[in-house]
């Protein structure tokens, strides 16, 4: 009996392998590209009026994530202005495939627009294309889906835009000359490294020639480590004028250290931060200026872009223009990208207008 | 014995009845539930659970469990992505992935049946191990450029109404149903689950039978991994994470006893369909994800509790009847 079943396994294995070998000359990587989405043949009519009563659904990476909630909240405001029907759905976990069932449901419910922050740019693709075949417009935001399967992508900020903003604030706070340092997240954080590269390039420009980047340290996005790194920087470089921290954890930790030390008022802290975390340091004078994109504007812009698509004002082609309520006019860039704009700067004057 | 069979039959028919009622109710009461594209989505959603539930039913009937299935799915998905990146043809990769699944299942089978380790412990171990290996194979990368011929087939339909993948499911379900309910091998599984010592003494090779169940379980999980990867056009190490719980939930809801020896494939398939249809219908009604979890949880507890209550009441009634009958006979 044992021999019998071993032989059965051997036969099964052999036949599977034969099947595999026989299939040589089959399809391998690069032979065939994936099914592209429906090509847009529609013509944009820039004068078309925005339709009322559009069904606009938001599908963030997962529900009950504070950041996603703020994003979608901006969308809700915009849908209200557009007199549309707002809906927020989403999975409990951010697994690659868990958004697909929700997309399918939205197709069934015949929504006009789906705004999605994709957990996996490719896993959502087949169902997003099904949605587009059903006439639904797809606006990706926060985290893009593959560009073959969405109409436009709301890019919160370009790498260049953030880097420039960081360099500009450093220059202003240093008074045009002196030593600056960077407190980053982890040494291999993709976003931070890209921004830092732009800052370094900006420092080569004549208007920044008197600024000297003395050191980049890494707080690993850990509060305590960032605190200690900030402390270390100030001890090693007593003439330091500005610490630039392009991470919300780093900037808050550095501000906390400086506000409780005798460097307060002598060293400026700036970078990318959350108004709610930074409010007390702005009020006590430790921090005079920092920046970030406003998350609710992303959702707001996504809703307007979706409405413009569904109303035929735009098709997603480069160069088309539309107006997004209070944010003003936007032009679509290459690959259907819509850039939200330069990050918003927060100061003692405007910080109380923001709650996130 | 006939009592037992009666109770089983009643639980199976109850769950099938509830499923039919939910399907009819949702078709009438929930807009867009009953149309053909939603049917395709429903089948695609339940496919991996239903496939893996087939061998899982047999394993649970023998009184064992296999919790490593979702990790096996993830590892075969990762292997599929890696081999595709290495330039193998998809036609070679797919059978290799099923074979890889079978080998992973054989590792479980060996540890459990040759070394005599408890299946719960072993498969919790390989649950972590296989998921870890999947991360070693593919890291956090995703491979997405699978050929449209295959990805399109998996999500496609015959004539817009019957999902292609339903063919695979029906064929495998019929094979599993025949094997479990109409062959001596199938009957031996119930015997093992009821009392494996007795099964051994009556000439059933318990060790080998269970070993092959794990091999089949792994192979089917491998197949599910291939289909999952093609459906989402995305080979990732974290594919299918947590799916083992959905499978076990459906198996238990379908009336299979976690202690072994009882259950039917039809009950299990109804269980799979019931859970998937409820989730689909509730989602169409904009019920939030948390509420969906609550519904699943309550159903599961009910499925374990209700048969116990029924048995308990029946036993109590029987005892009373016996007590009443004894003096009557003596007089």
In short:
The complex is a heterodimer of chains A (356) and B (331). Chain A is of the alpha/beta class and 356 residues long. In chain A, 38% of the residues lie in helices and 17% in strands.
Report on the structure:
The complex is a heterodimer of chains A (356) and B (331). Chain A folds into 2 domains: 55-156 and 295-340, 3-Layer(aba) Sandwich (Rossmann fold), CATH 3.40.50.2300; 159-292, Response regulator (Rossmann fold, 3-Layer(aba) Sandwich), CATH 3.40.50.2300. Chain A has 10 helices and 14 strands. Chain A has helices spanning 2-22, 66-81, 100-108, 125-133, 159-174, 190-203, 223-236, 248-259, 275-283, 295-310; strands spanning 55-59, 85-88, 113-116, 137-141, 152-155, 178-184, 211-218, 240-245, 268-271, 290-292, 321-323, 329-331, 337-339, 344-346. In chain A, the strands form 4 sheets. Chain A has a 6-stranded parallel beta sheet, with helices on both faces. The longest helix of chain A has 21 residues, at 2-22. Chain A is elongated and about 65 Å long. The termini of chain A are far apart. Chain B is mainly alpha-helical and 331 residues long. In chain B, 79% of the residues lie in helices and 1% in strands. Chain B has 13 helices and 2 strands, in the order H-H-H-H-H-H-E-E-H-H-H-H-H-H-H. Chain B has a two-stranded antiparallel sheet with strand order 1-2. In chain B, strand 1 (157-158) and strand 2 form a beta hairpin. The longest helix of chain B has 42 residues, at 289-330. Chain B is globular. Chains A and B meet through helix 1, helix 3 and helix 4 of A and helix 2, helix 4, helix 6, helix 10 and helix 12 of B.
- The computed structural class of chain B is mainly alpha
Strand order of the largest sheet of chain A: 2-1-3-4-5-13
- Helix/strand-derived class of chain A? alpha/beta
Give the neighbour order of strands across the main sheet of chain B.
Answer: 1-2
| Helix-strand string of chain A | HEHEHEHEEHEHEHEHEHEHEEEE
Mean pLDDT of chain A: 88
Number of helices of chain A: 10
Number of domains of chain A: 2
How many helices of chain B? 13
Using the alpha-carbon principal axes, give the shape of chain A.
Answer: elongated
**Which spans of chain B have pLDDT < 50 for at least 5 consecutive residues?**
none
């Amino acid at each position: 009996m044992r021999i019998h079943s071993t032989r059965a396994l051997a036969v099964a294995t052999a036949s599977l392998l034969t099947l595999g070998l026989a299939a040589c000359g089959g399809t391998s990587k690069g032979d065939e590209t994936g099914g592209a989405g429906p090509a847009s043949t529609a013509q944009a009519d820039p004068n078309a009026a925005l339709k009322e009563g559009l069904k606009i659904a938001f599908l963030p990476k997962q529900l009950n994530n504070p950041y996603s909630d703020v994003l979608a909240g901006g969308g809700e405001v915009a849908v209200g202005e557009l007199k549309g029907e707002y809906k927020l759905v989403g999975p409990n976990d951010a697994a690659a495939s868990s958004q697909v069932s929700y997309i399918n449901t939205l197709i069934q419910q015949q929504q006009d627009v789906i705004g999605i922050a994709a957990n996996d740019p490719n896993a959502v693709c087949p169902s997003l294309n099904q949605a587009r075949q059903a006439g639904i417009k797809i606006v990706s935001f926060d985290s893009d889906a593959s560009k073959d399967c969405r109409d436009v992508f709301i890019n919160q900020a370009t790498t260049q835009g953030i880097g420039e903003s960081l360099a500009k604030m450093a220059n202003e706070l240093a008074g045009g000359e002196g030593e600056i340092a960077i407190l980053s997240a982890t040494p291999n954080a993709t976003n931070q490294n890209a921004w830092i590269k732009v800052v370094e390039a900006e420092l080569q420009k004549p208007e920044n020639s008197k600024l000297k980047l003395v050191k980049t340290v890494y707080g690993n996005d850990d509060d305590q480590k960032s605190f200690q790194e900030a402390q270390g920087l100030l001890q090693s470089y007593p003439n330091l004028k500005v610490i630039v921290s392009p991470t919300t954890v780093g900037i808050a930790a550095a501000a906390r250290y400086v506000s409780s030390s005798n460097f307060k008022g002598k060293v400026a802290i700036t970078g990318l931060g959350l108004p709610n975390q930074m409010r007390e340091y702005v009020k006590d004078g430790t921090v005079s200026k920092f920046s970030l994109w406003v998350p609710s504007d992303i959702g707001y812009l996504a809703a307007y872009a979706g409405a413009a698509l569904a109303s035929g004002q735009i098709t997603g082609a480069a160069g088309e223009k539309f107006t997004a309520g209070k944010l003003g006019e936007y032009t679509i860039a290459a690959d259907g990208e819509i850039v939200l704009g330069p990050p918003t700067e927060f100061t003692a004057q405007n910080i109380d207008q923001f709650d996130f | 014995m006939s009592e037992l069979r009666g109770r089983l039959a009643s639980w199976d028919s109850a769950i099938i009845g509830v499923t039919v009622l939910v399907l009819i109710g949702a078709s009438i009461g929930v807009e867009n539930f009953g149309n053909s594209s939603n049917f395709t989505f429903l089948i695609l959603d339940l496919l991996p659970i239903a496939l893996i539930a087939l061998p899982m039913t047999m394993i649970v009937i023998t009184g064992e469990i296999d919790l490593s299935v979702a990790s096996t799915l993830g590892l075969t998905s990762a292997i599929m992505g890696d081999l595709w990146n290495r330039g193998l043809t998809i036609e070679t990769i797919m059978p290799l992935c099923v074979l890889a699944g079978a080998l992973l299942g054989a590792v479980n089978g060996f540890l459990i049946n040759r070394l005599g380790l408890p299946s719960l412990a072993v498969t919790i171990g390989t649950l972590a191990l296989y998921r870890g290996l999947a991360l070693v194979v593919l890291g956090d990368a995703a491979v997405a450029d699978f050929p449209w011929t295959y990805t399109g087939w998996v999500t496609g339909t015959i004539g817009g109404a019957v999902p292609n993948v339903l063919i695979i499911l029906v064929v495998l379900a019929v094979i599993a149903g025949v094997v479990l309910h109409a062959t001596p091998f199938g009957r031996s599984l119930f015997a093992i689950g009821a009392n494996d010592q007795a099964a051994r003494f009556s000439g059933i090779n318990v060790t080998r039978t269970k070993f092959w169940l794990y091999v089949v379980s792994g192979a089917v999980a491998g197949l599910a991994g291939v289909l999952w990867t093609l459906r989402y056009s995305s080979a990732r190490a974290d594919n299918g994470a947590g799916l083992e719980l959905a499978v076990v939930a459906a198996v238990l809801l379908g009336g299979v006893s976690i202690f072994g020896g009882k259950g039917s494939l039809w009950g299990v398939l109804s269980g799979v369909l019931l859970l998937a249809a409820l989730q689909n219908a509730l989602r169409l009604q904009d019920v939030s994800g948390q509420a969906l979890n609550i519904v699943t949880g309550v159903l599961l507890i009910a499925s374990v509790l209700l048969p116990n209550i029924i048995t308990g009441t029946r036993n109590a009634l029987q005892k009373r009847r016996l007590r009443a009958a004894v003096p009557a006979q003596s007089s």
